[in-house]
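PROTEIN DESIGN WORKSHEET
SECTION A - STRUCTURE
LENGTH: 92
TOKENS:
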């Protein structure tokens, strides 16, 4: 499935099945928004993905679900991002 001109927001990108999901999303040519609480890990992941997929469009939004202020800020950023798909990847 080609996801050109689509935007996918993904939570939990830096853990568990996050990396394979990210790779699949950018392979399908979607713009990817990494939504994670650990900014440094997320930016490192973005850089690693861009090394492998140099034409990918990848951005990051910090969101700590245990902090309501962080959630509100992230929500406002996501609202303005014209998201087509939102994947809540959480491990328990």
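SECTION B - SEQUENCE
RESIDUE ASSIGNMENT:
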């Amino acid at each position: 499935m080609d996801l050109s001109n689509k935007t996918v927001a993904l939570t939990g990108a830096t853990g568990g099945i996050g990396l394979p999901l990210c790779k699949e999303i950018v392979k399908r040519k979607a713009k990817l928004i990494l939504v994670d609480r650990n900014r440094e890990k997320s930016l490192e992941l973005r850089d690693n993905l861009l090394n492998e997929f140099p034409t990918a469009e990848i951005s990051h939004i910090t969101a700590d679900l245990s902090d309501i202020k962080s959630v509100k800020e992230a929500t406002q950023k996501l609202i303005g991002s014209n998201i087509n798909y939102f994947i809540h990847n959480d491990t328990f």
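SECTION C - NOTES
The chain is about 40% helix and 20% strand.
The longest strand covers residues 31-36.
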